[in-house]
Structure prediction request, 397 residues.
Amino acid sequence: MTRGAAAAGLRARAQERLARELPGAIELRRRLHEVAEVAHREDRTRAALSDALGSGEWEPVAGGKSLLARSDPGRVGIVLRAEMDALPIEEESGAPYACRAGAMHACGHDVHMAALVAAFRALRSLEDAPPFAALFQHSEEAYPSGALEVVEAGALAGAHAVVAAHVHPEIEWGAASADGGAINAASDFFDITVRGRGGHAAYPHRARDAIAALCHIVGALEQAAARAIDPTHGSVLSVGFVSGGSAHNALPDGAAAGGTFRTLDERDRERMAALVESVAHAGARLFECEADVSITFGEPPLVNDDGLAAATRDELRALGVALGGPLRSLGSDDFGYFSERLPSLMVFVGVGGALPSDVGLHHPRFLPPDDAVRAVATAQLAGFLAAARAHGAGPWA
Prediction:
């Protein structure tokens, strides 16, 4: 048998086993959607996954917050990852299995988890498969980052590669995108507090106007960020809140603002942090005020391994999945903590056209169809097969 024929037979076996798992995975998706829980509170979600995986098939990691299911006890190998947490959004999907507890899977994590259970069970049934593990990771949407806690706990020791798939409305239904390089941005937060001296609104010269200083800083930040970073690089700075004062005719002692800056390049990330500091202090001084600046560095850029991405595109085609156009965004994902340590790949799976045009990620009516479970599981399978080329044996190599 030729190598190509062996690979084709392997794909066919994997697809056939996956097809058997899909009905149960769709039921699981609905159950996971109904019990949606926010970051660091995923108790019922873990219980549902534990039941679906079966006793003895998983172990708690990262302080018991995440689950790791191994195909070979004591080994990790290739890791397939799905996120467990939901968002604090009141659901408006109208689905009979909608969550009514003030949380919602508005980013597709219910689909990702159900697909990964199906993929794990299907691949585990192939006796000659190389060692692999399914990671059901807590807290992707909030800090502290679940991915960072998994890494710091040593749960991925011995891993060769990490693969994930994420639904995305910017990719057409039936297609998937697997591009190399930086595809998601680092996401960092800043808080600025301006300290002035309060006074009567009629006598601003006797006060030190913290609000005027802060308004100047906010405007200068967005202009300076547009000039400090190479315009051919992806970056954005946005102010998310401004607060200060409580009376029409009084100037407060202080005012505050906060926001994020997102970059695809680590050097731009350092430049943006320095920019926030310098603009805040200089702007405050113009109004004889002082500024305190706090910067919280979040997840790093998500960088797909070029070789793994190219091999996955081949596998997607072989599995009958159309390739979507390149997708790079300034959205973020703590999967970047994996990609800075190991060859990694995030595949974007299209749900565009399967949702209303005005509904995107994190929308209260975001609800991919049940068949998205199959689409995501197929993308997870493609990434696994690609990683197995480098780390497998026989037909897997």
Notes: The first helix runs from residue 3 to 34. DSSP finds nine helices and 16 strands in the chain. Residues 159 and 302 are 18 Å apart (CA to CA).
